[in-house]
Backbone:
């Protein structure tokens, strides 16, 4: 790093320091605020102690960010706009820095006023705003269209998967006379499915940064194998737990929810993983663009995200969880106790699949909003006594204000930079 | 600063959920339970001639009826159209209405009895105790049905839990039927006593019989609402 700075001009050093600081703040706020959505239900139901939830969230957010985080980061950095059409690397660097700062400011304000906005929308809005300012031909409107569609479709997909999952669980577990035994039989299959999805997301077109390359078949094979190993292990554990025969119906459901509580720890970690994979891009996408461009002095849209930047993002998220996120987890956990472990399990599986799918496609989406869609899906499957549809309106309003505000703010910051730095 | 800031969380997840209306329904049902006990004590005290005890219990019944009324209003206010429930919302609200009607009639019974303080003969007392017991039995069956609803929800409407609830609903119908027969029998007996008791006594008692009958009727209406809630 020191050598790196020696070759740079003072202006560039300032740029990099501001970018590191702001990118780190974005990663921090993602960890501080958004991680609660994955861990909140498990802590609220008592399946996980707060301390353990923080540790698990840290591990899985970090691995998601480092292992799968590069796809969406590339979209943010050089997918929405085509930087190769810009002549000046300097302009690209300060434009990206302006986006990062604008999003950070808006996210800070929105948090203060408890607006349900997403860091994703802030960053995408500001990148598009800057792109249009520089030259509309720079903006890849196909990708912008795809991203907008994914914002609408992803909560529906999450909802649909969770709806189907809850229906399935109702049919094969709850409607059975001996539902506890059914759960013990079905549990390992559910575990297989979840592990399979996660490992596929890691091994399919992934890990190239670690110098590992897998073909589609190899990725499938490894994922199936890992799934089977975990399923067998869990089957062994389940069979060795001596479940007391429930004396009453309420005790039976209590036991079922307790087992789901354990299964939900896995899905909560999966959501944390998926969240890290998708949302770390909001912090490090622009950051890597700034660092890469100022370092090499050239625009290279195909440059991959260096792993150390992914790690910076991951560490930022982990610190966010450790310094503030744990309290948010506790607060959210207390407020969403209506989501019992079996319901949370289904919502989280739907969220994981949707978010990982979008991450692999390089689509920046809001994990939280997918989770809201998933919870609605479980509600529509008669899993939750009462859900409030007004949140849909509030989410749409949050899109409508976040996009223009972050676009305009980023344009203002960009103009200021241009006056003072160039 | 942080402490003030910490309450400000950008989480739409919290907004996606609404307070569980079934919690409040159960709470309301528990008030019915409590109120029924006071009504029973009031009626027992009245017919055994202990009017001081009667008065004490009557006040309790009125108090609880008022409390339940407030709760009923809160439940209604917390279910605007933007809330989606796992059961039919109109039916749910009708169930609350009917459950609340039970309390209204319990209040009516003690209020009507309090119109005059008379010691009735042992034969009449026995018949009224029987009738009150039947009304309370109907309420108890109905409450078992309501108290089983959370398990129906938890199991996501499994056949097993639904049939358990239906079992209680059938018991309500049976009790209500028996209560009707008893009502008829007691009224008929009152007409026979007609020569020996005053017109005032007669009217006082006949109306009490009718009000006690209404309690069972509304327990049955309410349990019909529970049955419609169970439909898939």
Residues:
């Amino acid at each position: 790093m020191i050598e790196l700075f020696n070759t740079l001009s003072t202006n560039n050093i300032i740029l990099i320091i501001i970018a590191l600081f702001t990118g780190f703040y974005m990663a921090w706020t993602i960890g501080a605020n958004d991680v609660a959505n994955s861990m909140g239900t498990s802590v609220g139901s008592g399946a996980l102690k707060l301390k353990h939830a923080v540790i698990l969230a840290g591990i899985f957010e970090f691995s998601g960010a480092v292992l799968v985080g590069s796809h969406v980061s590339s979209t943010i950095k050089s997918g929405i706009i085509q930087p190769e059409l810009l002549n000046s690397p300097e302009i690209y660097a300060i434009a990206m820095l302006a986006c990062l700062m604008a999003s950070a400011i808006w996210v800070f304000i929105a948090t203060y006023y408890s607006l349900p906005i997403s860091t994703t929308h802030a960053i995408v809005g500001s990148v598009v705003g800057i792109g249009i300012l520089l030259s509309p031909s720079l903006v890849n409107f196909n990708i912008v269209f795809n991203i907008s569609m994914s914002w609408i479709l992803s909560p529906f997909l999450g909802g649909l998967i969770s709806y189907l999952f809850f229906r399935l669980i109702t049919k094969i577990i709850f409607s059975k006379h001996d539902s506890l035994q059914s759960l013990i039989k079905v549990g390992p299959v559910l575990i297989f499915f979840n592990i399979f999805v996660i490992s596929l997301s890691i091994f399919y077109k992934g890990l190239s940064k670690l110098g590992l390359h897998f073909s589609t078949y190899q990725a499938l094979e490894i994922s199936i194998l890992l799934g089977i190993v975990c399923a067998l292990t869990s089957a062994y554990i389940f069979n060795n737990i001596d479940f007391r025969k429930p004396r009453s119906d309420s005790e039976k459901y209590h036991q079922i929810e307790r087992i789901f509580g354990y299964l939900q720890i896995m899905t909560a970690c999966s959501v944390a993983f998926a969240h890290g994979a998708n949302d770390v891009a909001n912090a490090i996408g622009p950051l890597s663009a700034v660092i890469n461009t100022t370092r090499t002095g050239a625009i290279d849209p195909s440059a991959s995200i260096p792993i150390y930047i992914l790690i910076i993002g991951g560490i930022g998220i982990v610190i966010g969880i450790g310094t503030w996120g744990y309290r948010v987890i506790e607060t959210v956990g207390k407020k969403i106790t209506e989501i019992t472990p079996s319901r949370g399990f289904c919502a989280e599986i739907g969220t994981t699949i949707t978010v990982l799918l979008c991450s692999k496609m390089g689509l920046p989406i809001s994990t939280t909003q997918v989770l809201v869609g998933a919870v609605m899906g479980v509600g529509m499957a008669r899993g939750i006594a009462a859900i409030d549809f007004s949140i849909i309106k509030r989410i749409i309003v949050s899109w409508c204000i976040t996009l223009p505000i972050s676009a305009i703010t980023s344009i203002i910051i960009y103009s200021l930079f241009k006056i003072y730095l160039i | 600063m942080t402490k003030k800031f910490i309450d400000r969380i950008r989480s739409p997840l919290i907004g996606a959920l609404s307070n569980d209306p079934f919690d409040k329904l159960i709470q309301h049902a528990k008030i019915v339970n409590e109120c029924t006990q006071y009504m029973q004590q009031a009626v027992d005290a009245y017919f055994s001639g202990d009017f001081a005890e009667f008065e004490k219990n009557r006040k309790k019944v009125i108090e609880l009826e008022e409390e339940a009324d407030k709760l009923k209003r809160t439940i209604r206010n917390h279910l605007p159209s933007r809330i989606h429930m796992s059961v039919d919302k109109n039916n749910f609200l009708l169930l609350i209405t009917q459950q609340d009607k039970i309390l209204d009639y319990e209040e009516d019974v003690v209020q009507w009895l309090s119109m005059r303080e008379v010691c009735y003969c042992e034969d009449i007392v026995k018949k009224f105790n029987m009738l009150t017991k039947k009304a309370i039995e109907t309420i108890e069956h109905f409450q078992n049905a309501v108290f089983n609803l959370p398990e129906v929800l938890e199991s996501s409407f499994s056949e097993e839990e639904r049939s358990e609830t239906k079992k209680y609903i059938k018991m309500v119908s049976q009790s209500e039927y028996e209560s009707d027969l008893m009502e008829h029998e007691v009224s008929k007996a009152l007409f026979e006593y007609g020569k020996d008791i005053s017109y005032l006594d007669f009217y006082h008692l006949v109306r009490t019989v009718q009000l006690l009958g209404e309690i069972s009727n509304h327990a049955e209406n309410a349990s019909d609402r529970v049955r419609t809630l169970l439909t898939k």
Q: What stands out?
A: The domain at 20-78+85-229 of chain B is CATH 1.20.58.220 (Methane Monooxygenase Hydroxylase; Chain G, domain 1).
